[in-house]
């Protein structure tokens, strides 16, 4: 009795037609690059890496708050050694990501490698010099969160647990990188926090000290928003644009001031939507779920039922504010 011949096992490449799929994907890439005049690629990675920046941010968080966000085995007597070693690793890794962004930005007019490297070194050096200032601002943010939330039992709890604080750590770093003119890296840094916390802060937004985002999920703060000191906002607050002007060709105009200005000591409760280049005056209190498209005077109290604003009742609801 003869043994049955074993059936040949088909490779995964033949089962899934991988060679054909690879060819199809290559053709799509060629079409994309040709449409954007990128037929010849420089070789190597073209853009900064989200994964690499995620590790850089983890190291920077540890360097900023070593005994809270650093390694669990760290002892205070070796704190400076850890910070120095971690910063050296993080800043050299950041240097490579900055170089990639600069090379990408200069792709239409190639610049010598040595010049790009010198520019990248200058940017990362300036960023490193700003870290102490970033830490000082974050300390005030942590204190604001502790003082503003009766459920907070310690500043350590706030730093370790609050999504608003994590979002602000990323934002303070991202904003500095944005000002140093590496906006793509800054945006990736912001989006890493957005993905973890549900808080969407554009790195261009200017935020003063002592900022507290309570709960935080669904908060949106646009690129040109300006927020003063000691401001507190709650979940699902939007500081957005009212309209998006276009040029004669119908292309969106970018960089225009289109988001709100929030002055010092303002409180904005959950679900409020503030649109356009309007100003919320100092000390104003914006109630939950209101819709604001006009300036609010300092010290005003705006609610769905109406607001007291310099002696006048101003109706505010899910429509434009009317006076």
Task: Provide a descriptive summary of the structure in words.
By secondary structure, this protein is of the alpha/beta class. The protein has two domains: 45-198, serine acetyltransferase, domain 1 (Orthogonal Bundle), CATH 1.10.3130.10; 218-323, Hexapeptide repeat proteins (UDP N-Acetylglucosamine Acyltransferase, domain 1). The chain is 44% helix and 13% strand. The chain contains ten helices and 17 strands. It has helices at residues 12-15, 18-35, 50-64, 66-69, 79-105, 113-129, 131-148, 155-161, 163-179, 183-197; strands spanning 200-201, 206-207, 212-213, 220-221, 226-227, 232-233, 238-240, 261-262, 267-268, 273-275, 279-280, 285-286, 291-292, 301-302, 307-309, 312-317, 319-322. The strands form three sheets. The chain has an eight-stranded mixed sheet. Strands 1-4-7-10-13 form a five-stranded parallel sheet. The chain starts with 11 loop residues before the first helix and ends with a strand. Mean pLDDT is 90; it is low at 310-315 and 317-323.
SSE order and pairing:
Layout: H1 12-15, H2 18-35, H3 50-64, H4 66-69, H5 79-105, H6 113-129, H7 131-148, H8 155-161, H9 163-179, H10 183-197, E1 200-201, E2 206-207, E3 212-213, E4 220-221, E5 226-227, E6 232-233, E7 238-240, E8 261-262, E9 267-268, E10 273-275, E11 279-280, E12 285-286, E13 291-292, E14 301-302, E15 307-309, E16 312-317, E17 319-322
Parallel strand pairs: 1-4, 2-5, 3-6, 4-7, 5-8, 6-9, 7-10, 8-11, 9-12, 10-13, 12-14
Antiparallel strand pairs: 14-15, 15-16, 16-17
